[in-house]
Design brief:
Blueprint lengths: L2 E4 L6 E2 L1 H14 L20 H8 L6 H11 L6 E2 L3 H10 L3 E5 L4 H8 L8 E3 L7 H12 L6 E5 L2 H10 L2 E5 L13 E2 L2 H8 L29
Parallel strand pairs: 1-4, 1-6, 4-5, 6-7, 7-8
Antiparallel strand pairs: 2-3
Length: 229
């Protein structure tokens, strides 16, 4: 394994609750009277990209372009935090020589604000403005860095992420603290970024002949609890 592609929302960022709150705010602003789920029950309308999230929430199709414009301008005002250990895991993987890529249906501005300094550790970021989707993002990553698809792992939290990885011909691991994926036999899963680091410890990193050094990610702590939304 030489490179890792990360989805962002639900993988690196604990962002489901703010997205549901945005829907509640737009529902109130436009006086639509939609019956939206509680913020803590947001998985029932979770979808990507954002236009599909809005459709699933019940917003009228003719209003969605306006809402997407508002989203691009105003969502940075909402508080989005990285999942526990996100920065540490990113630094660890970068130090071991992995090429790191972000493939997101969000905007770079939102991602960089929430990830802070860890954002700058990624070799490339593909967002709504510079790629046509996650398959396109992987293709660009492969071409831009001279990678082989067998050496790439895609980390995602939705079935669409899994399908994108399959279409791209790269490996996939699902993370269950995100928007959709639960533990499944169809593909490997982890419950947290800490557990992801632990699993990657079992394979050789690009820089070392041996395994990753992850003393801070001891086995007793690999089963991190998902944050409550």
């Amino acid at each position: 394994m030489k490179a890792i592609v990360f989805d962002v929302d639900g993988v690196l960022l604990d962002s489901l609750a703010p997205h549901v709150l945005f829907c509640h705010d737009m529902n109130a602003r436009f006086k639509l009277g939609l019956k939206l789920p509680k913020v803590s029950e947001g998985k029932s309308i979770a979808s990507t990209p954002m236009d599909n999230f809005l459709r699933k929430a019940g917003f009228p199709e003719k209003l969605i372009p306006t809402l997407l414009d508002i989203y691009s301008k105003e969502f940075p005002q909402y508080t989005v935090k990285a999942f526990q250990n996100a920065s540490g895991v990113i630094r660890l993987l970068k130090s071991q020589g992995y090429k790191l890529c972000i493939a997101t249906s969000n905007y770079k501005e939102n991602v960089s604000k929430a990830l802070g300094k860890a954002y700058n550790l990624f070799d490339v970021v593909y967002d709504l403005n510079n790629c046509k989707g996650k398959v396109d993002a992987v293709d660009k990553f492969v071409a831009g860095f001279g990678l082989e698809r067998k050496d790439i792992l895609f980390v995602g939290d939705t079935l669409k992420d899994y399908e994108s990885a399959k279409k791209s011909g790269v490996g996939f691991i699902g993370i269950t603290h995100g928007w959709e994926i639960a533990k499944t036999k169809e593909f490997p899963t982890v419950s947290s970024l800490r557990e992801l680091a632990w699993k990657l410890n079992k394979i050789h990193s690009p820089k070392q002949k041996g395994k990753l050094s992850i003393r801070r990610f001891d086995v007793k702590k690999t089963r991190a609890r998902p944050k409550k939304l």
